[in-house]
Design a protein that fits this description.
The chain is built from 9 helices and 7 strands. It is globular, with a radius of gyration of 17 Å. 38% of the residues are buried.
Length: 216
């Protein structure tokens, strides 16, 4: 292995994850995470939000522009669409714990001072951030995980995951050493980008209804 790749191979949040404490302790520790280079450009760490007693965990890709500024997950346009879809599927958004596979906003700028454009995290960056997601899962112990999009799916289920093949079905897999039930679906931002937004939204609601039934 050449030395040029060594730093990237060594990316991990592991040394920053505390051994004890609840979600508040995790959130405080995550604010100081330097496990991969994404912390350098982002405004702040955007950790998960919700109750430790939540039966449902929603896992997305990474924070967006608004989330990065506010420090909370799913507060931008995709988050508002997700809340509406959850509500329509019979799930109270306040009862879910929401988080992302990657806790820092990764972006590119066409020019200085221009709008920050979302850039997908690499598998290495997602893997580096994995210890935070593992710690959240261990503390919340959700009965069901809704996987929002391909990046979250690969983070939880491995690089062969394809959202189109399994969306709207209940999967049973071992995640970080615990049996978990998961319902994969598209990321709400994909609905916002879809040519037929109404059909894409209906598909998301339908998948979330499957999740609601699995929880009932």
């Amino acid at each position: 292995m050449s030395s040029t790749h060594a730093p990237e191979d060594a990316y991990t949040a592991e040394p920053f994850v505390p051994d004890r404490g609840g979600l508040p302790a995790l959130r405080r520790a995550a604010a100081e995470c330097r496990g991969c280079p994404l912390h350098r450009d982002a405004t702040q760490t955007v950790f998960g939000a919700g109750k430790a007693t939540a039966r449902l965990m929603l896992v997305g890709e990474q924070p967006g522009d608004q989330e990065d500024r506010e420090g909370k997950p799913f507060v931008g346009p995709a988050g508002r669409l997700l809340d509406r879809a959850l509500d329509e599927a019979g799930i109270d958004p306040a009862d879910a714990y929401v988080t992302n596979a990657v806790k820092h906003f990764k972006f590119t700028r066409a020019e200085p001072r221009k709008r920050r454009i979302h850039k997908a995290p690499t598998l290495r960056e997602t893997t580096a951030c994995g210890p935070w997601l593992a710690a959240e899962l261990a503390l919340v112990e959700p009965e069901l995980i809704v996987v929002l999009g391909a990046t979250a799916g690969k983070a939880l289920l491995g690089s062969s995951f394809r959202v189109t093949q399994v969306r709207g079905t209940v999967l049973e897999e071992e995640i970080h050493g615990r049996p978990q039930r998961l319902v994969p679906t598209v990321h709400p931002s994909a609905v916002l980008r879809a040519e037929d937004r109404e059909a894409a939204y209906r598909g998301l609601v339908s998948d979330l209804k499957t999740a609601a039934q699995a929880l009932s």
